[in-house]
Amino acid sequence: MTELPGIVITGASGRMGQMLARVVLASDKARLVGVVEQAGHDWIGQDLGTAMGTAPVGLCVTDDPLEAFAKAQAVLDFTAPAATVQFAGIAAQARAVHVIGTTGLDEADLQAISAAARHAVIVRAGNMSLGVNLLVKLTRMVAAALDEDFDIEIVESHHAQKVDAPSGTALMLGQAAAEGRGVRLDDVSDRGRDGITGVRRRGDIGFSAIRGGDIIGEHDVLFAGAGERIILRHIASDRSLFAKGALKAALWGQNQKPGEYDMMDVLGLG
């Protein structure tokens, strides 16, 4: 019998890191073979289960991604841009599938990730859920069907600890709306309004970010015309859906050629 794919999780102590660990440990399709945290973190050297406040799992947290990735067939990475770029290079060396849920990546980060994808499979998405990716597809379709008489506004809500805005999912939705209209998002994006801003520019795609409490993730795409509004909405009530999507991507990537992919590819929605 073929051994199950080995999975490494980076950022083990974070909200998503812990959720990813629980999902992989409970899976009958993959094995958790490594967990990584940054040097100096107080979880380093501890059993993952003990550090999470549960029963020991027989796997210690390490600050050495090179050693951890060498044992893995896939890496699940929801960390920070600088760390993700470093992990992309190491995962490529190990020929491990690199599933990236990190948001806030800039153009230089994306170029470095693209370079790593010449040697390994990289699946990168601002959101790993089936529902959100369906919302992306619907947003593109509706934007293509409606002209600029309909203003587009993307409203996203997340917990108070989220550090970037707009969210990666909101940017995915904005990109889909721009593609539907045949324009570049950078040319029509409106991300900030304060004071006397003047009237809304025709054709702009607006973004509004709400931060508060423990909101997991809510996204609305508003198409506002004269006398009518169309609202597409997704509400996430359980963070595990993102972790399950990431694991699905890691397993899917085992059979792919090196390159860059997204969840549309994984889910067959492309």
Tell me what you see in this structure:
By secondary structure, the chain is of the alpha/beta class. The protein folds into 2 domains: 6-124 and 239-267, NAD(P)-binding Rossmann-like Domain (Rossmann fold), CATH 3.40.50; 130-236, Dihydrodipicolinate Reductase, domain 2 (2-Layer Sandwich), CATH 3.30.360.10. The chain has helices at 15-26, 48-52, 65-69, 81-94, 107-116, 130-145, 168-181, 185-188, 240-252, 263-267, and strands at 6-10, 31-36, 61-62, 74-77, 97-100, 121-124, 151-158, 189-190, 205-211, 217-225, 228-236, 259-261. The strands form 2 sheets. Strands 3-2-1-4-5-6-12 form a 7-stranded parallel beta sheet, sandwiched between helices. A 5-stranded mixed beta sheet has the order 8-9-7-10-11. The mean pLDDT is 95.
Helix-strand layout with pairing:
Blueprint: E1 6-10, H1 15-26, E2 31-36, H2 48-52, E3 61-62, H3 65-69, E4 74-77, H4 81-94, E5 97-100, H5 107-116, E6 121-124, H6 130-145, E7 151-158, H7 168-181, H8 185-188, E8 189-190, E9 205-211, E10 217-225, E11 228-236, H9 240-252, E12 259-261, H10 263-267
Parallel strand pairs: 1-2, 1-4, 2-3, 4-5, 5-6, 6-12, 7-9, 8-9
Antiparallel strand pairs: 7-10, 10-11
Helix pairs in contact: 1-9, 4-5, 6-7
